[in-house]
Amino acid sequence: GTLDGTNPVQAVAGIATIRVKSGTTISSYIINANSAGLTLVNGSTITYVHGYANMLVTSVDNQYIEANGTSYATITTRIFDRYGNFVNTGPDSTKLIIYKITGTENATWFDGTVTDKQVGATAGVATISLKSTSHPGPVTVTSSSTFVIGDSTGITVVAGNPTKILLNSSRLTVIADGISLTTITARVTDANDNIV
Questions:
Q1: Closest CA to 52 of 98, 87, 11
Q2: d(CA 129, CA 141)
Q3: E strands present in 32-109
């Protein structure tokens, strides 16, 4: 915060006043006053708190998960005011967060569903988990709520470790004429037949 007005202040009838303009970050300040020959009995503590919820910030703990149908990632959404202060108290800290998943062939929610989920925030934080399918590819999770700017985060479902080789022939029947050809293709895959 900053003092807003002329300083020092001339007392009138034993009283002097000055305004203090708030900053944009959560903090506390102690305001003191002094004058020659006088003793300060107490300072005045001013605490700046967060404003109303303005935006969501969504992140993921594991950006890459294996396409094995059992790997999980946890999505976390935090609520902030317009100046980036974390909204962890008051009614806005318990907003209902709506999650939407795209790329549902690659991942589902923790319970195997893919429809939108609603999660109530606690102290400014909401979390939800998603689970990979056996199909690699990109996944996007979007978070939204009323009267705030939403956010999204991305996850990539990737093939697992190589475990086998799959062979394929372009022609299963070939004329025995000494010149006909067939092409053999070898694919290195994980346990779920995803190419590595």
A1: 87
A2: 10
A3: 44-48, 55-60, 64-66, 72-80, 96-102, 107-109
d(CA 41, CA 35): 12
Query: CA-to-CA distance for 158 and 140, rounded, in angstroms?
Result: 14
Tokens of 102: 């795209």
DSSP string, 127-148: EEEEEE-SS-EEEEEEEE-TTS
**Residue 1 pLDDT greater than 80, yes or no:** no
Q: Which whole-number Å values give the CA distances from 30 to 5, 10, 27, in the listed order?
A: 17, 21, 10
CA atoms within 13 A on the CB side of 39: 1
pLDDT of 157: 97
Q: Is the pTM of this model over 0.85?
A: no
Closest by CA position to 107, among listed 92, 125, 129, 85: 129
pLDDT given at position 2: 77
